[in-house]
Amino acid sequence: MTVAVVVAAGDGTRLGAGMPKALVPLAGRTLLAWALDGVLAADVDRVVVAAPPGRVDDVERGVAGLPAVVVAGGADRQASVLAALGHVADDEVVLVHDAARPLTPPSVFDLVRAEVVRTGDGVIPALTPADTIKRLAGDAVVETVRRALLAAVQTPQGFPAGALRRALESADARHTDDAAAFAAAGHRVRVVEGSPDAFKITTRWDLRRAEQLLAPPAATRSGLGIDVHAFADDRPMRLGGLQWPGPGLAGHSDADVVCHAIADALLSAGGLGDLGSRFGTDRAEEAGRAGLDFVTRSVALLAEAGFAPVHVAVQVVGNRPRIGARRAEMEALLTAAVGSPVSVSGTTTDGLGLTGRGEGVAAVATALVAPAPVSFRR
Question: What does the record list as coiled-coil region(s) (predicted)?
Fold first, then answer.
């Protein structure tokens, strides 16, 4: 059997939240609640929570319905763990975990547990420091320490429960973690790979980092654009920013239905109105305007509203021109204008409607946009 002891009795002074750290809110839940998610998703049979003295009732309400027992923690970590071990049998595996490491993946619990079962030793997860480490004397550097010889230790720390209990009971010093007390009693402690997500929340910055990791992905928004123009013999054909042979399309601007549909879709996705309200026929300055310009201006309007295109798809509907031979060229031009991938396809309506009768060309576009990343450049 495997029991997880979750140490949640710390006062969180350095966090400055005015309450025990385990009860501090994180993305709408307490640190303890998030920590228990990881514990209970692992191969753990029971949980014992060492709660802040005086807040046992609050913690019990928080774990109602879970396979968890709550005990009052002690004045320090060793006392809290010993109090929790009163509910753990000597022949069980115990995983001691800090509630202040709320995002520790279940896989770390399972890895530690498996190694304890395999070896009978103490097992701790750890990471090799990424930064260069210096040993100091006052403010002077004495030497550079080899990182390969160092480990940043995390939790859960796993042990045979009876051996850990005896080590803590016989400890003649206060240790900063359970593995130190276990090793001081003459036991071997092994190291397994930890996780960057198992960082400890000590300061406000740590809490903010956890909030960012738990934040939902930026919500995407979609928009739809449709444009139709009839053929006109006295104008060149502009479609998707390219010039084509044959008669063009009638309109106030260049009547590029592909670009107009894309611009409409982008504006729609950003909640910015439509092509008519932004660049309508009542504006003399838009006469003869290139459709590609409408696209780039719509992208700029999106940026002002805090959005950026993610993907655009446009379908050309009509008997002519046949776009297949120039699809790649059109996609490249439109992708450059939009700043994100644009896919182009073509179809006909089997002789039905304006396009089927060969009277004009239509285009239908969909756009996906997302909140634009914040730039910190000056």
Answer: none
83: its two tokens: 């109090």
- Indicate the domain borders of the chain: 2-214, 221-371
Asked if CATH classification 3.30.1330.50 holds for the domain at 221-371, the reply, yes or no, is yes
CB 301 within 8 A of CB 270: yes
CB atoms within 10 A of CB 374: 6
Distance CA 364, CA 227 (A): 7
Instruction: Dump pLDDT digits (tens) for 104-135.
Output: 999 999 999 999 999 999 999 999 998 999 99
Terminal-to-terminal C-alpha distance of the chain: 57
Q: Nearest-CA neighbor of 367 among 258, 289, 280, 277?
A: 258
Give the tokens for residue 53.
């003295």
pLDDT digit string (tens) for 260-306?
A: 999 999 999 999 998 888 887 777 787 778 889 999 999 999 999 99
- In degrees, rounded to 5, the angle at the alpha carbon of residue 313 between the alpha carbons of residues 309 and 319 is 145
Span 2-214 CATH architecture: Alpha-Beta Complex (3.90)
Q: Cα(283)–Cα(276) distance, rounded to whole angstroms?
A: 10
Question: What tokens appear for 3 in the block?
Answer: 């029991």
- The DSSP symbol for 280 reads -
Question: What is the pTM (predicted TM-score) of this model?
Answer: 0.64
Q: Smallest Cα–Cα separation from 267: which of 238, 296, 229, 240?
A: 296
Q: Which residues are annotated as a binding site?
A: 227-229, 252-253, 260, 274-276, 347-350, 357
- Looking at this protein, which amino acid is placed at residue 299? V
Q: How far is CA 118 from CA 13, 19, 113, 121, 248, in A?
A: 38, 40, 9, 8, 77
**Tokens 């025990």 belong to residue:** 20
Contact 125, 192 (CB under 8 A): yes
Annotated binding residues for a divalent metal cation, written as ranges, equal: 227, 229, 260
Count Cβ atoms below 10 Å from residue 141 Cβ, excluding itself: 10
User: 7 near 95, Cβ under 8 Å?
Assistant: no
